[in-house]
Amino acid sequence: MLKHAQEITTVGSLTRSASRTTLRIGVSRSFGKRVLARLLGEFHARHADVALDARVGKCAQVEEWLRSGFVELGIGGLADRGFSVLPLVSDRMHVVLPVGHPLGAATAVHVRQLAGERLLMSGGEPEARLEAFFQEHGVDPLVSLRVDDPVTLMTMTANGYGVSLLPGIALPAKAPRLCALPLVPALPCDQVLAVGRRATANAFTDEFVTLVTSSLDRRELVVG
Questions:
Q1: Sheet harboring 84-89: ordered strands across?
Q2: Which is higher by pLDDT, 64 or 202?
């Protein structure tokens, strides 16, 4: 765990006290921060006596935290299915373009249209999936940048440095300088909520799962 300590970003420790129960949640970087903030805020409003500790990292890190018991719950596009899993968001990969890009005039972008485009990629498991996808469709991608942060990718895209590929859940509600279109054929990027080994020892994991389920029932988290 120590080797990842410096890579972990704490986005939510809403209350802290040794006398209070702490619910630890691992969240992948591809999961939208606006959605995460809404979930954490709503849970805190219901259970102000519970300390929330949300850690953001790569999907592989979140899976490791779940296996080791460092967190009770994990959220993101987790590939390891060795956990109890609740489907969270049915998502797909999107092509993010700067406003005015020629590909932005359509309603979707075919993978073959990305041949020759400078691509900004997030690296790791998402890039491995994309590379296999490109190979399947006979495209040799021109990757000019790898950075494991969706906000940086979108900022560089808006500034004209290239085209990025991100799941819909990572996209902001409004981005005046960007245009996001579905990638076709569709490349699924489904997000799940995974329950780790330590979850049964924390009575509030069920409460958080219930909150997520109710949010899904209100269709607040579903990406079109």
A1: 9-13, 51-57, 22-28, 73-76, 191-195, 84-89
A2: 64
